[in-house]
């Protein structure tokens, strides 16, 4: 397996507890979804044949620009009888070697709770915690004012 792919799998593997969903978004606007699971302490794709295809997509995306990765991991934690999912996102690019950057909390929360077509705020998904490293915020702790502040901060950063 190529070193960039191994580095990505190693980083993601730290946050796959039992099963997880992985979304890849390329600079060319292509998206793909993958299912992961932890078996005997190792992270693997649900379909063992997907590993090679995943590696090809990652290497192709890095050749043409960058990659955004969203990881939704099912935790053993429950609230009101429902399993809590951890949501994390990364930007991956080549700068000499591979660089895996964690998406900051305000960008993570905003990107998952703003309609990309209309720019309108959406209600945070229930039973989710947004995580960067060990810092996590539960979706039920986020209110509309928080989202508006995040959006203002991101607009300042972009402009």
Key words describing this protein structure:
alpha+beta, 8-stranded mixed β-sheet, 4 helices, 159 residues
Class by helix and strand content? alpha+beta
Total discrete domains: 2
The number of distinct helices, counting runs of at least 4 residues, comes to 4
- Helix fraction, binned, reads 25-40%
The gross shape turns out to be: globular
State the total count of DSSP E strands.
Answer: 8
Mean pLDDT across residues: 88
Question: Unreliable runs, pLDDT <50, ≥5 residues?
Answer: none
* CA gyration radius, whole angstroms: 16 Å
User: What is the H-and-E element order?
Assistant: HEEEHEEEHEEH
Strand content: 35-45%
Distance between the termini: 39 Å
The biggest beta sheet is recorded as:
8 strands, mixed
Provide an overview of this structure.
This protein is an alpha+beta fold. The chain folds into two domains: 3-103, no CATH class; 104-124 and 137-159, no CATH class. It is built from four helices and eight strands; from the N terminus they run H-E-E-E-H-E-E-E-H-E-E-H. Strands 1, 2, 3, 4, 5, 6, 7 and 8 form an eight-stranded mixed β-sheet that branches. Strand 5 and strand 6 (97-102) form a beta hairpin. Helix 3 packs across helix 4. The N and C termini lie far apart (39 Å).
